[in-house]
Amino acid sequence: MHESPVRLPDGAVVVLAILSSDKTTLSQFSGDKKAWPVYLTIGNISKDVRHQVLVHVTMLIGYLPVSKLECFQKKANIFQDFHHAMSLLLHPLADASYHGREMVCTDGYICRVHPILAVYIVDFPEQCLVACNKES
C-alpha cells in the first residue's frame, strides 16, 4: 500500500530551487587546495534578471571539501562522502520543503513558501560524481 502524496495547504507557494557547483582551486600557493562552492538561486525569477551579475539573485550556500585522501590505505568512497556532505548542506532546504517557511512574496504579502530542488547544474565530472559513476 502506498501513501497518498502530501497536499500543500491553500495559499502555499512552490519555489523552484536551482543549485549549481563546479570544483575550483582556492589557492595555488598552499598545496593546491580545492573545493566545490555550491550556489543557490530561485527558478521563479526570470532568467533575464537571474543572469544579471549586479542583481545578486545567486547565493553561495556552502563549500564541499575536495580531498585526495591519500593518507588512508583503503580507497575512500568519494561518492558516499560527496552525498553525505550534500545531504548535510541541503538539510535546511529539505526541511523547508516539507514544512514550508513564511516569507514576504513580491506582492508584499506573507506566504508559506515550499522550496523544491528542481535543477542541479554541474559539468561532466560532477555529473559522474552525483550518479556514482567513474568518469571514464
Task: Explain what the structure shows.
With 136 residues, this protein is an alpha+beta fold. The protein has three helices and six strands. The protein has helices spanning 47-50, 78-99, 124-130; strands at residues 13-21, 24-27, 33-42, 59-65, 101-104, 110-121. Strands 1, 2, 3, 4, 5 and 6 form a six-stranded mixed beta sheet that branches. A hairpin with a 5-residue loop joins strand 5 and strand 6. It is globular. The mean pLDDT is 81.
Short description:
Helix content is 24%, strand content 34%. It has 136 residues and is an alpha+beta fold.
Q: What is the H-and-E element order?
A: EEEHEHEEH
| Helix proportion | 10-25%
How many strands in all?
6
Alpha carbon gap, first and last residue: 41 Å
Roughly what fraction of the amino acids lie in strands?
A: 25-35%
Largest sheet: 6 strands, mixed
Alpha plus pi helix count: 3
Instruction: Tell me, briefly, the overall form.
Output: globular
What's the alpha carbon Rg, rounded to whole Å? 18 Å
Spans of at least 5 consecutive residues whose pLDDT stays below 50 are: none
The structural class is: alpha+beta
Round the mean pLDDT to the nearest integer and report it. Answer: 81
Outline the secondary-structure elements.
Blueprint: E1 13-21, E2 24-27, E3 33-42, H1 47-50, E4 59-65, H2 78-99, E5 101-104, E6 110-121, H3 124-130
Parallel strand pairs: 1-6
Antiparallel strand pairs: 1-3, 2-3, 3-4, 5-6
